[in-house]
Here is the input.
Amino acid sequence: MKRFIHDRRVRSFVFQGLLVGTLVLVLALAALNARQALGERGLSSGFGFLSEKAGFAVSESVIPFGPDNTVGRAFVAGLSNTISVSLAAIVLATLVGVVVGIARLSPNKLVARAAGVYVESFRNTPQLIQIIFWYALVISLPAIRQAFALGGGVFVSNRGLVMPWLDEPLAAGLAAAGLGAGFVAALVLVCLPGRRRWRGKAVAALLLVPVAGAVAAAAMVGLSVPELKGFNFRGGATISPEFLALFLGLGLYIAAFIAEIVRAGLAGVDKGQVEAARALGLSERTVLFSVRIPQALRIIVPPATAQYISLVKNSSLGVAIGYPELFNVSNSLATLTGQAIECVGIMALLYLATALGMSALANGFNRMTLITER
Here is the structure.
């Protein structure tokens, strides 16, 4: 018995068990008290309301949703909107952040200072103010009849961005998923350590194959081109002002932090490695992509992942401009159903699952980019 008492592993197991048991007991008592309080007020508890009709519609949704759909589907609709705007903003933040971060280390003082002004301006301004600014800017654009033509059937007005898109929703979704997957795969391939002659061709293939697939799908199912009829455009795909404002507000704000992370990662690479690569006669482009970036990724990926997760959580600020993301939809459901505790719990679990999924993907990518000694 004395041996078990002095065993560190046994003590650790016992103390952890007591801690977990105490937490479970506290949560159970809290749940019972909440249920009793709700019962005294004539309010029901539980998750049976998820199968009831939502009774309201959202202004826009990635998946089809209407008042006759269930409350559970409403949560899925809100989550899909959150994920769609977050993924688009992550792409924007990554592209802008990498470019600005590299520009911060440019020997050209004008370029470096311009990048520094961008970082300091966006990083030190509240994100909510930026989102509202972009929303005010979009809705201040000319009316639909005086919409700006950007070419190729793309128009922008105070009602958002209208562009050509595939007629068939399923084909459109697959094309969008293929383009996104191709971009991510190309980015991963570029960042992998080592120098391979076939890398450039593989990256080009990963980018061109989804584009070719989208073009083929357009030829098969037809391309819907927007046309101005009456007081609105008919055909094509419309991106709402709320989506545009939240997309720009999230992406450009987080890009400032990504830029600093990229700058710090590149600056953290041993100068001897860079000088040795230049001594071999390698071009600056080769040094950047084959020496500096692969080694800097070990520094860049963990804090960048934290910023991406923060971006997803900050998408809840879309409630300020009326974008129907998860937080906005959950608030509406809590008001209509009276199941505030359950709605908040479901919303928290969905945010948690999304963040953990992103963290797992980033950890996997980080393991792929590790440089090991041979």
Remarks:
- The two ends are 48 Å apart (CA to CA).
- Strands lie at 148-151, 154-157, 160-163, 165-166, 223-224, 227-229, 232-234, 237-239.
- The chain has two domains: 1-29, 68-164+225-368.
